[in-house]
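Intended use. Records like the one below are meant for learning the mapping from a protein sequence to its folded structure. Do not use them to infer anything beyond what is encoded.
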Amino acid sequence: MGYKLAGYDVIGGVEIDKKIAAVYKKNMKPKYFYEMGVADFNKIPDHELPEELFGIDILDGSPPCSSFSMAGSREKKWGKKTYFREGQEEQVLDDLFFQFIDTAKKLKPKVVVAENVKGLIQGNAKYYVKLIINRFKEIGYETQIFLLNAASMGVPQRRERVFFIAQRTEEKS
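Structure written out for the chain above:
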């Protein structure tokens, strides 16, 4: 919603959860929407996707974060298949961030914004941060990480989130 309020056109979306997809479509009214997992979206041949999706200004995503939350069993779930509470397909949740990076590789946006829980930069999860930064670098992006509190952005809650901002290196002047 922030992008829309800032004057950006939200032209697409990918969401596996039917309820979340319905809310997103109602609020954002994207021109292109794919109700599927990001891994399935990445399998769509480039020639079957609208040309307008390639080279977009910003690709924004929030890969599922329960694997990195400080609540629950955390490390015990890493690398193991699990189900979302919403009854979606079984998958390794900590791989979804890398599948999102594969979407960036496919679409080649100028900037990628990825949001996740604060737990991703704490304890043993820092290993994933290194992998994420290296993967972005492999596909041609320079990445910065920010820890931001929603309350300082006008959101009525105190909630710290980690933001990865990756800029395509060939876009830098």
